[in-house]
Write a structure and sequence with these properties.
Blueprint (H helix, E strand, L loop, with lengths): L1 E3 L44 E9 L4 E8 L2 E9 L7 H7 L1 E8 L2 E7 L7 E6 L4 H7 L4 E6 L1 H15 L4 H7 L10 E3 L6 E5 L12 E6 L15 H19 L6 E6 L8 E6 L12 E3 H10 L3 H4 L2 E6 L3 H8 L4
Antiparallel strand pairs: 1-6, 2-3, 3-4, 4-7, 5-6, 8-15, 9-10, 10-11, 11-13, 12-13, 12-14
Organism: Crenichthys baileyi (White River springfish)
Main location: cytoplasm
Protein name: m7GpppX diphosphatase
């Protein structure tokens, strides 16, 4: 919809219920290797059969669809891409307009843009598990209070029982997948990390910049595992990550939000870098912890996150929520 000389509401993009780190889809027989030439068009969804719409958001122009590709369950995420400033001249020149309403100085049109300026960012998870389907389904959420003892007696055993595959993470660290997308690679086994764009960012503009730093240490699941011995790692990610983003995208540290999630969506320590002003999914106070605060807390108390009571949201069908209810903690 194009509106001339009218008012339109600009809303934030935050919707933590609808997005929790979409995983990189990979073919089992290629061990996560990226297939095909990215410059070639292909329709891997030509045989996709829709089962249901798991959730959608008209405000954020995103939809999560469950269905099948061949005999495999699949989740497809469809998201309209932002309008880029550098494409405005072509958009105005080559689009078709159909008048819908005119009243005094206000006019409203239906704008049909050239196809290449009207793309839909599409993420495919296939084969998708029941956990993926539940993850994207709209549900009620509950705020959980977790003490250090709760983590050890409830959360940690639950995580260990899940045995969720992190192979896609290791593929990135070992450069078996997405190697061409890496922005910064520090190979040090203790303080090293790989910085690359998150799947939620189409990399066509910095307004919604979103990168992930995946640490090389494989024994750090989350915020709860951190102690003062990890300060060199955290400080390296914080400093080198900001420097790499400045060099690549000309975006200074003062324009960045750098944080960790708790609970994270996968249990291998990673840090989020997003542009300040972009309301990225999960950047709210109930889930995001600024890396600068994490570093300062560990400098003050080496075991801060071992004992600290933390709060985080869980959705109604989350197995971890059931464990907290069974333990009488909710």
């Amino acid at each position: 919809m194009a509106t001339v000389a009218g008012k339109r509401e600009i809303s934030s993009a935050e919707n933590d219920e609808l997005s929790r780190e979409p995983k990189r889809a990979k073919a089992d027989d290629k061990n996560g290797e990226e297939g095909g030439n990215e410059s070639e068009w292909e329709n891997v969804l030509s045989t996709f059969a829709t089962s249901s719409v798991l959730s959608d958001s008209a405000r954020e122009k995103i939809m999560f669809v469950h269905g099948k590709i061949a005999d495999h369950d699949a989740v497809v995420v469809l998201e309209k891409t932002p309008i880029r400033e550098d494409s405005l001249a072509e958009l105005f020149r080559d689009s078709k307009l159909r008048l819908e309403l005119r009243n005094d100085i206000y006019s409203s049109y239906r704008l049909q843009a050239p196809p290449h300026l009207n793309e839909i960012k599409t993420t495919v998870v296939c084969p998708a598990t029941e956990k993926h389907v539940k993850k994207y389904k709209r549900q009620e959420s509950f705020l959980v209070e977790e003490t250090g003892e709760d983590y050890r007696s409830i959360t940690l055993p639950y995580i260990q029982e899940q045995s969720l595959s992190l192979q896609w993470v290791y593929n990135i660290l070992e450069k078996k997948a997405e190697a061409d997308k890496i922005v910064h690679d520090d190979a040090d086994p203790e303080v090293g990390f790989v910085l690359l764009p998150d799947l939620k960012w189409d990399q066509k503009q910095v307004d919604d910049l979103y990168l992930i730093a995946i640490v090389r240490q494989k024994d750090i699941k989350s915020l709860r595992d951190l102690s003062s011995e990890h300060l060199p790692l955290l400080q390296n990610v914080f400093q080198r990550g900001k420097e790499a983003i400045l060099q690549r995208y000309n975006l200074p540290a003062s324009k960045l939000r750098v944080y960790l999630h708790y609970q994270p969506s996968y249990y291998h320590l990673h840090v989020h870098f997003t542009k300040l002003g972009y309301d990225a999914p999960g950047c709210g106070v109930e889930r995001a912890h600024l890396l600068s605060d994490v570093i300062q807390n560990l400098q003050t108390d080496p075991q801060f996150y071992k004992s600290r009571t933390l709060h985080f949201p869980l959705r109604a069908d989350d197995g971890l929520l059931s464990r907290f209810k069974e333990a009488g903690r909710l």
